[in-house]
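Appendix C: a fully annotated inverse folding record. The material below is reproduced so that readers can follow the format used throughout the book. The structure is listed first as tokens, followed by the designed sequence.
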């Protein structure tokens, strides 16, 4: 049999917890190398780490403490022991980005740091400058005791591309970069009122849909819109409904909050339907017969309530009331007793029912109110 040269095993675990603008995190890495021919070169590395990171509009900073432990230490290449890091980045402008880090290993008195910048120049040029330095003494297992190293790198690049570039939508200045997903949906006439786009239901073309950062697209001939690249996180999708006729009403809201996952697809539809209406009167029933007389007078300023929902309206000077453009469904209509005349009572049913269809109208609803005279008590 032929002996294998070696084998490796690697394990990595990370946990994070956000506290407002701070994020605490812990990480553990375990790496094992087994040399089947020369056992003396086998080693095991354990590296637990704890850190905290802060997020601000233009600044991101972090502090980390790590402990590198090698067994045997002679294979550690001078890295055995604690390892401290502090660093961060600063967004000077949308085109200029600075970052830096300082490191220290107490076990071997090694300290160093790095600085860099990334600058997007005109005509799609970009400049990158990077400098790094470290000094100290190496640990067990190396043949050089003291050392110092410095590195400087300058890179100027020019980006060339073909076709139309996909811009990232919904990414606010200073927002943490978490990748992108997409948002799509339809603006359509929901004829069967089920909230879903079904076969035969017509979409509306040319309707503007926007995000909270001002990014906007318009619906195609089928009423479909798409934001292909949206920064991961929470977004507000808003519909400009000015091109949809006033006779239609939305089944939901014209502004919707949605969560976008990295590499995920989120869907926000805007279903609407032709609104319905109902009309009626609140009339005086002076004799309390429960029947409206031909010349019955209207009762003004009575609050009429439409349920379910929170729609309500007051009667006019002739006792008329109406609800326009409401979502088609079954409703219950009632009066607010606090707004009825003093010493009055209803002589009609207190609650009326109306089953509204899309574009339908219900007329002739009546509430009858008997206004009694105030009793005079003689003593």
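Designed amino acids, in order:
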């Amino acid at each position: 049999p032929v002996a294998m040269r070696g084998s490796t095993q690697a394990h990595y675990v990370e946990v994070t917890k956000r506290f407002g603008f701070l994020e605490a995190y812990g990480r553990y890495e375990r790496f094992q190398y087994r040399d089947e021919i020369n056992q003396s070169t086998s080693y095991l590395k354990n590296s637990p780490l704890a850190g905290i990171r802060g997020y601000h509009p233009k600044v991101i900073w972090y502090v980390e403490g790590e402990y590198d432990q090698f067994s045997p230490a002679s294979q550690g290449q001078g890295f055995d022991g604690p390892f401290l890091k502090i660093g961060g980045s600063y967004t000077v402008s949308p085109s200029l980005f600075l970052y830096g880090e300082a490191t220290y290993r107490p076990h071997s008195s090694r300290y160093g740091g790095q600085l860099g910048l990334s600058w997007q120049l005109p005509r799609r040029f970009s400049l990158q400058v990077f400098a790094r330095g470290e000094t100290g003494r190496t640990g067990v297992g190396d043949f050089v005791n003291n050392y110092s190293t410095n590195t400087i790198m300058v890179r100027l690049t020019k980006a060339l591309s073909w076709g139309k570039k996909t811009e990232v939508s919904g990414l606010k200045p200073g927002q943490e970069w978490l990748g992108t997903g997409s948002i799509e949906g339809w603006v359509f006439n929901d004829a069967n009122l089920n909230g879903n786009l079904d076969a035969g239901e017509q979409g509306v073309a040319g309707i503007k849909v926007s995000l909270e950062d001002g990014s906007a697209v318009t619906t195609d001939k089928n009423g479909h819109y798409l934001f292909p690249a949206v920064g991961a996180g929470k977004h507000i999708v808003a519909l400009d409904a000015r091109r949809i006729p006033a006779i239609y009403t939305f089944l939901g809201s014209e502004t919707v909050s949605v969560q976008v996952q990295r590499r995920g697809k989120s869907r926000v539809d805007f279903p609407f339907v032709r609104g319905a209406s109902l009309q009626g009167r609140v009339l005086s029933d002076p004799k309390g017969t429960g029947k409206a007389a031909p010349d019955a007078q209207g009762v003004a300023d009575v609050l009429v309530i439409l349920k379910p929902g929170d729609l309500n309206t007051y009667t006019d000077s002739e006792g008329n009331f109406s609800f326009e453009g409401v979502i088609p469904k079954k409703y219950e209509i009632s009066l607010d007793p606090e707004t009825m005349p003093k010493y009055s009572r209803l002589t009609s049913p207190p609650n009326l029912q109306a089953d509204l269809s899309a574009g339908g109208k219900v007329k002739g609803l009546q509430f009858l109110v008997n206004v009694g005279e105030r009793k005079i008590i003689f003593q």
